[in-house]
Fold Hydroxymethylglutaryl-CoA lyase.
Amino acid sequence: MPDVELFEMGPRDGLQNEKRLIPAADKIALVDLLSRAGFRRIEVTSFVSPKWVPQMADAAEVLGGIARAPGVRYAALTPNLTGYEGARAARADEVAVFASASEGFSKANLNATIEESLDRFVPIMQQAATEGVPVRGYVSVVTDCPFDGPTPPANVARVASRLFAMGCYEISLGDTIGQGRPETIDAMLAAVLDEVPAERLAGHYHDTAGRALGNIDASLARGIRVFDAAVGGLGGCPYAPGAAGNVATEKVAAHLAGQGFDPGLDMDILREAAAFARALRATGETA
Ligand code: HMG
Ligand code: MG
């Protein structure tokens, strides 16, 4: 039985940041490869405004084209009810709402204050509860914000607690710009754990500064056992051009295995998927 879980983010968090336009068929091929690796959850795409994120404009086509493996839940990001309805029409198994711990990032990412964004999630939560659809919640910029500077841990705890109270089954804590350090991650977790138990939390660490593995170790010490990662280290940060993206799944899997954890993944398929992901980056057409 796996004792840690990696939630694969590459097709969504990775490819949303690619400057090149990746054809839907290639995204589908990547998800199909990932479906054979042993993940229980794969974030496939997002139903957001195509004006804001043109890379995800093919969300319905991608979700509609994948070969669904038994036991795998295929997830999509949904910022509002429009997005939720699109995700459900395309048969997403679960959805995710995403909020920010800082006002600056909330405005930049959602064109809304934190409070307004939480208000928009209420109808999603209601509809999802009626339909029995699990909803995950993200909190972004949990240690550092590119607009507002260092994020006070209490602000993260407040937003995480709101999402949890609304009915999110798990709260994923995003170091969006990869500037967290084991000490700041630890301080943030200390505050969040007063509101949400460790088994309902996940770490979502970008590897911009090469500290994601250290941040994962700090989180393991606090009892966190779910981590988000992107195969091949796909992605980047729009606020730090040229920076690395999500921490690479194959790197986290090897790191965890070295500590005696078993993420339950097929390393050969992971390596194949990582090579495929890197090739996608290299050969996509210019957007
Ligand atoms: P807005 O411009 O304030 O919204 O954007 P609006 O309601 O005025 O709508 C603007 C247009 O978008 C309208 O179309 C809407 O119909 C359309 P128009 O009338 O102009 O033709 N629209 C939609 N279209 C498709 N799907 C939808 C949708 N909603 C409205 N769901 C909005 C507000 C929330 C839509 C916008 O800000 C948005 O889409 N933001 C998403 C940004 C995003 O995707 N960011 C990346 C994901 S978050 C992330 O990466 C962080 C994470 O990885 C964790 C971490 O690392 O921290 C999760
Ligand atoms: Mg992210």
In short: The first strand starts at residue 5 and ends at 8. The chain has one domain: 5-282. The two ends are 42 Å apart (CA to CA). The chain is about 40% helix and 20% strand.
